[in-house]
Amino acid sequence: MGTYSVSVKKSLISQQDLINNGEHCSADPDRLRQVGRDVGQQIRIKRNSTQHDALYTVSEPRKESPDNIVRMGAAGRQRLGTSEEFSGTLDSQVPRSSSYPTDDQAKAANEFVERLTDNGTHKGLIAIAPHGGQIEPHTDEQAERVAARLATKGVSSWRCKGWNQGGGAHERWHITSTDIHQASFPLLNKVISRHFTYAVAFHGSSRQDILIGGGPAADALKSTIQKAIEAAIADSNIKVRVAQANSGYEGDSKRNVVNRLTAGGENGIQIEQSSTARQDYGQAIADAVANVYNRKLP
After folding, report:
1. Residue 287 to residues 129, 150, 233: CA-CA distances in angstroms?
2. DSSP label at 262?
3. Which of 26, 33, 64, 297 has the fewest CB atoms inside 10 Å of its own CB, making it the most exposed?
């Protein structure tokens, strides 16, 4: 792990991925490897000592001269509060979990941490929330609730949590689920090869409904979870649907972290929820999900 000074430049016209995705950047691969990172992994970029930092995925290798040039589209630079080019620092350490061992400490510092509840051997179910804290509020609480409800069965839980008082946590800390790389998340790396029978991910959405997506082999399980959530929030008027193909919420990519956690990528479930669903019915939704898996786990 390490840091180096960078010169953040505008993306080139040929770098359409960077132009279209504010979470992505390019960097010199040889310079990256000097600090223990590679293309496809996550890094932090800090603009200066008075500005906060943000997370990015290095989506593209690009040999640069000098080799400390990092390129971003306008949306990527604006995550750090400017549309201009600037000098900053690249940091290979993504979560600051050991520096902030409690969530209260991390929240007070407007930081990003990773948490894992795991007995080291359980392979039945892992409940995850890649965007907890203030990124997609209450999703981490839901993953923790499922693990707590099924604690006697040893159920595991992995969460990332990010804060930014006054708003902006999503802009600083969100990394798309299909981009999350275990090399950048030490606690995820401990369990990514466990090949759980089941995995369920709690997410937040700007939609007004709840969408159930996940692995292509989990259709029956999606329907079961849909019905369980519908019953649990029957008085809410919130619609619960199974995500349709090409909706943008189907969650069936093999690269989706919830699918990569399961044996064969077959039984991952992704639950996208409106802010009202999470705030007013988050625990009821988590309990409904826990009840479904309770019947499936030995």
Report:
1. 15, 10, 11
2. B
3. 33
Q: Whole-angstrom Cα distance, residue 90 to residue 2?
A: 8
Q: pLDDT (tens digit, 9 = 90+) per residue, 112-152? A: 999 999 999 999 999 999 999 999 999 999 999 999 999 99
* Alpha-carbon span 69 to 7, nearest angstrom: 5
Given this model, what pLDDT does residue 32 score?
A: 97
**Considering only CA atoms, which of 76, 5, 61 is closest in space to residue 30?**
61
Q: Is the Cβ–Cβ distance between 62 and 26 less than 8 Å? A: yes
- Please name which of 215, 211, 213 lies closest in space to residue 274, comparing C-alpha atoms: 211
d(Cα 96, Cα 113) in Å, to the nearest integer?
Answer: 5
pLDDT of residue 125: 98
Question: What is the C-alpha separation between 30 and 71, in angstroms, rounded?
Answer: 15
Measured CA to CA, the distance from residue 70 to residue 76 in angstroms comes to 11
Alpha helices in the chain (DSSP H): 16-20, 29-34, 74-78, 103-108, 139-149, 169-173, 186-191, 219-232, 257-260, 275-296
- pTM value is 0.96
Nearest-10 crossing angle of helices 219-232, 275-296: 120
Return the amino acid letter for 233: I
Structure tokens given for 223: 């329907």
Structural domains of the chain, with CATH: 3-91 (2.40.40.20), 103-296 (3.40.630.100)
In the chain, what is the greatest distance between 2 CA atoms, to the nearest angstrom? 61
How do residues 222-257 score in pLDDT, each as one tens digit? 999 999 999 999 999 999 999 887 677 778 889 999
Give the closest residue to 175 by CA, choosing from 249, 85, 95: 95
